[in-house]
Amino acid sequence: MSDFTVELKIAGTGEVKTVREEAMRYLGYMKASPDDITEKLIEECEKELLNAVSARCCYARSEVRFPRENVVDIGFGEIESRDLYRHLKGCHSVILFAATIGIGVDRLIGKYGRIAPAKSVIIDALGSSAIEYWCDTAELDITKDEEKHCSRFSAGYGDFPLSCQRDFVRCLDVARKLGITLSDSLLMTPTKSVTAVIGLGAETRTCGNKCMSCNNKYCIYRSV
What we know:
Strand content: 15-25%
Helix content: 25-40%
């Protein structure tokens, strides 16, 4: 296992936002629009969510090796995954990445789950869009000096084993740096948290939508 130099980034003003279109998809609206009452409730929830956000990320660079076909080593041992192999093929190194928008959002979801379930569901959806926006923002900043890079790819996408979540958590020291813990069932707390690998390399293209790597073609959250 490699030794990693882990860097920390804290969100600045305007670096975390909700994405209404994404949140509506999470809420099951698809192409439909909410009524005026729901729209007003969404706006209220959005303000509360953004006040509760405490966004940070950490990351480390590592060499990537391809010992044999469909096997990748990104710094913490060999991983057998056809999808990860195809995603990173041609890369000379990777960025191991973790991000969160903080435990305050979980507390808000839990609070309204007890007293106003509709608000809890809306804040949950808005929070999912906000962590993706923060990851996108942080990824652009981290990779701004790279000639080309692949989009981030998380354990659990395609056949990239979810068990690798433990390696990200350990190698990036996310418990201390970001306050992220991992349950026995591999769920992260705070729930609006992400771990991922970003491929770097001059031969690497900017990869397409992550849903293209998922075999669940009928997922209601699928964006393509």
